[in-house]
């Protein structure tokens, strides 16, 4: 499923135009105050724009149309907020996940729950836990698992690495690649973490107070990074230094670990 933002204006967003292709991992990179969370809320229909609309598979969403079911849009577009407590109103993890599945009349709910918990590397024992006892990282994983249990065609994540440790970040990268490659999900990630965005995304938009200031495939979008109000991914920074100081052109890599392996074998 494709999703588009057609001339969206909302809060500090002005005439934002974006088209997210089906089956790709799309990154929205920007610093605090650039409008990332506002745009995420509009794309997930949690907020309605003051101007423009979103389009799902070629159908423009008319916000004044009483025939539109926003619950069904939310069913197709799964959203995990940066502040996950906004999305959880139940006492325990099990109650939260069951309530979401019951809302859409799912059957075999326990299997959906077990499968989604397994995807985010959580044990079933967490189902008994009260929401108030969960860490921020566990809250994110529970919210992601609940979203995945509905099997949405589009998945939107707002600052997903904020509360994750190193291993959990690597697990998330592996999961997102599986969702794209095996299940052909369209994934949209909002973050200020340029290293994470560069490692996982196929296509990147760079957002600031002036709107979308650059976009493109990740190997191209940072070429004029000094004009952009974002940090250069560390892997590109190291590649640039090697090229400048040693006059060695390294193969483009997604993360520093892979680049360091190349450097080691080059020296050998």
Give an account of the 3D structure.
By secondary structure, this protein is an alpha/beta fold. It folds into 2 domains: 3-221, P-loop containing nucleotide triphosphate hydrolases (Rossmann fold); 233-268, no CATH class. The chain is built from 9 helices and 10 strands. The strands form 2 sheets. It has a 6-stranded mixed beta sheet, with helices on both faces. A 4-stranded antiparallel beta sheet has the order 2-1-4-5. α4 (109-119) crosses α5. The radius of gyration is 20 Å and the shape is globular. The model has no long low-confidence stretch (mean pLDDT 88).
Care to give the gist of this entry?
By secondary structure, the chain is an alpha/beta fold.
Question: How much β-strand is present in the residues?
Answer: 15-25%
**Helix/strand class:** alpha/beta
CATH topology of the largest domain: the name is Rossmann fold
CATH class of the largest domain: Alpha Beta
The string of secondary-structure elements, in order, is EEEHEEHEHHHEHEHEEHH
- Give the strand order, joined by hyphens, for the main sheet: 6-7-8-3-9-10
H/I helix tally: 9
Alpha-carbon Rg, integer: 20 Å
Care to count the β-strands? 10
Which word captures the global form?
Answer: globular
Low-confidence stretches: none
**Biggest beta sheet attributes:** 6 strands, mixed
- Rounded mean pLDDT is 88
How far is it from the N-terminal to the C-terminal residue, by CA?
Answer: 47 Å
Task: Determine the CATH superfamily of the largest domain.
Answer: P-loop containing nucleotide triphosphate hydrolases
Q: How many domains would you count in the coordinates?
A: 2
